[in-house]
Write a structure and sequence with these properties.
The protein is built from 11 helices and 12 strands. A hairpin with a 7-residue loop joins strand 11 and strand 12. The chain binds 1,4-dihydronicotinamide adenine dinucleotide and magnesium ion. The site of 1,4-dihydronicotinamide adenine dinucleotide (NAI) has 20 residues, from loops. This is 3-isopropylmalate dehydrogenase.
Length: 354
Amino acid sequence: MSARTVKLAVIPGDGIGPEVVAEGLKVLSTVAPAHGLALDTTEYELGAKRWHATGETLPDAVEEELRGQEAILLGAVGDPTVPSGVLERGLLLRLRFSFAHYVNLRPVRLYPGVRTPLAGVAPEDIDMLVVREGTEGPYAGAGGVLRKGTPGEIATQDSVNTRFGVERVVRYAFAKAAERPRKKLTLVHKDNVLTFAGELWQRVVREVGAEYPQVTTDYLHVDAATMFFVTQPERFDVVVTDNLFGDIITDLGAAVAGGIGLASSGNVNPEAEFPSMFEPVHGSAPDIAGQGKADPTATILSVALLLEHLGYAKAAAQVETAVAEDLRARADSGAVRSTSQIGDDIARRVAEQG
Ligand code: NAI
Ligand code: MG
């Protein structure tokens, strides 16, 4: 097999970011050669340290360099010493917007052996794919403040929903639903109150859905959806939703599927006009940083999403199988392992699959 070289940008970031990214790269470099994949990695120092040193979050020149990469692996950014929002808006959201990451992909799956806080729920009951819109909604940055600091202060934060933006993410979600055994798509919104945006989402789902007669569609208000995530998670297959609702329900998804240490995500530009970015859902966890206590599994599962995006579905499946085996073994042994020991064990299980 002739090797293809993929240019991969690595942003370890802050806190536990570098620790978990090291394990993600360990597994990636173990699985890649057998699939004819060579990696040309470039590390970028972005996050709290750089902001403190230079005041920069994402210099234009770095954004330009990242644009020339094929994919990005990110640990986490954020630190208590940086004002809230600086790195989120200046780095993470800027990359999502600049690189048209209109699909924020968040699988929610309960692996065998993993403990869920839900009683009487089996792994086959929790297997969903949340497709969260990534570039619009209340996160678009529209709005403003008037008379700041006075009793008459006014703050508005508008939700931006374009026909184009809604349609492209809904199309992606239908295509995913059509590929999955259950072929079900649930739109989550709040169309009884957010009537303008909600009606647009409903209409687009109806229209695109007409092209996918094999996919069953369903609708839930976001408040009801949070209830059913807990009481009937088996209702969900593919979920498509707006940026803010998706942010909230996927934390709940992570909680019911075994915790934030396992939740993976991809910020995807499906057309590959720009590099897509893969990262664990969790943040920089300053409370456990530097102690080897972080679970690298979410990052390793994000590497599987990255492989799938790059067209290496078999390699992705190998990584996922190795993670599933490791999770099952954890349930049996109960031994406490360090971040790098977990990475070693998963890499070994990948290697054993040949
Ligand atoms: P967090 O996800 O960093 O931590 C929440 C809790 O989960 C903490 O108790 C932490 O120890 C634990 N935890 C997180 N990841 C873990 C892992 N892999 N293994 C074991 N335990 C883990 O969220 P928090 O505390 O709200 O935010 C900390 C910082 O991270 C903030 O600066 C925040 O802005 C930033 N952040 C960054 C994100 C990103 O880079 N995409 C996403 C979320 C938060
Ligand atoms: Mg979140």
